[in-house]
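Researcher: Sequence recovery benchmark, item below. Answer with residues only.
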């Protein structure tokens, strides 16, 4: 049995914190990874950054597989290459109930540490590339709503502030193809 972490909701100012690099990948970091995976799978979601659970460290977990059986974690991720452009409908566990088109690089190269503290490189395109860019944005205090018009962002903020005043429960995840 493991408990899940509370996910911060936009416009919580803590989502604007800049995450600090992990100095050493030790058992505490691995415990954080496990709790983050548990939280993401339970939501369910395809990506979660530590900042979203109020842990200001450069840690990301994701799983874009249909069966949610392909966990990927990135510690201290760094984008070292990008090419092309694609538009994809994005959501975020910190922006429940909203899905909007965002323009991002079509393919990227990322370097990170794995859960053993070893450095690796990954080339990604399509959904995985979008997810990595979305999650790395979180580590710099940036949200997908920052890529939208200020009118759209304001509309989303007002709705979520109202939901929080009324303590509305988090909406269920839509069908995977709709994310
Ligand atoms: C980021 O987002 C992402 O609003 C991960 O009510 C999303 O896991 C990257 C979710 C799409 C690329 C494409 C959102 C669940 C999950 C909601 C998520 C909701 C329930 C979002
Ligand atoms: Co997000």
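Model:
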């Amino acid at each position: 049995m493991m408990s899940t972490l509370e996910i911060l909701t936009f416009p919580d100012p803590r989502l604007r914190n800049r995450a600090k690099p992990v100095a050493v990948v030790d058992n505490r970091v691995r415990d954080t990874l496990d709790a983050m995976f548990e939280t993401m799978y339970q939501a369910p979601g395809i990506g979660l950054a530590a900042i979203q659970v109020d842990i200001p460290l450069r840690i990301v977990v994701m799983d874009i597989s249909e069966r949610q059986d392909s966990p990927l974690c990135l510690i201290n991720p760094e984008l070292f290459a990008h090419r092309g452009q694609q538009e994809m409908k994005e959501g975020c566990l910190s922006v429940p109930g909203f899905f909007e088109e965002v323009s991002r690089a079509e393919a990227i190269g990322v370097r990170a540490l794995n859960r053993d503290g070893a450095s690796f490189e990954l080339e990604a395109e399509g959904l995985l590339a979008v997810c990595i860019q979305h999650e790395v944005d979180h580590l710099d205090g940036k949200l997908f709503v920052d890529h939208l018009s200020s009118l759209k962002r304001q509309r989303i903020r007002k709705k979520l502030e109202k939901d929080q005043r009324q303590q509305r429960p988090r909406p269920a995840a839509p069908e995977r193809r709709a994310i």
